């Protein structure tokens, strides 16, 4: 199935890859490719298959992708009682 999905991406125009950003723990890439017959469900399947293929090729080249860093968030969240301005219960 993966092979069939990847064939949906056409070779013309040529796919392009750009480095979009260097984050503190990530290199963000932007990939442009064309799909011959784009239907919504096919677009998601092709994008997912393309990402898995890129990850496999990076790993085969010895590039490891680590999980995102855990971050601890602190703060307060207010809960609205559902009564609008000027209204009473």
Automatic annotation (TrEMBL):
Cellular component GO terms held in the UniProt record: membrane
- InterPro entries the record matches: MS_channel_C (IPR049278), MscS_channel_C_sf (IPR011066)
Mechanosensitive ion channel MscS C-terminal domain location: 12-64
Domain of life, source organism = Archaea
What's the name of the protein? Mechanosensitive ion channel MscS C-terminal domain-containing protein
Please report the organism this UniProt entry assigns to the protein.
Haloplanus salinus
User: Highest lineage ranks of the organism?
Assistant: Archaea, Methanobacteriati, Methanobacteriota, Stenosarchaea group, Halobacteria
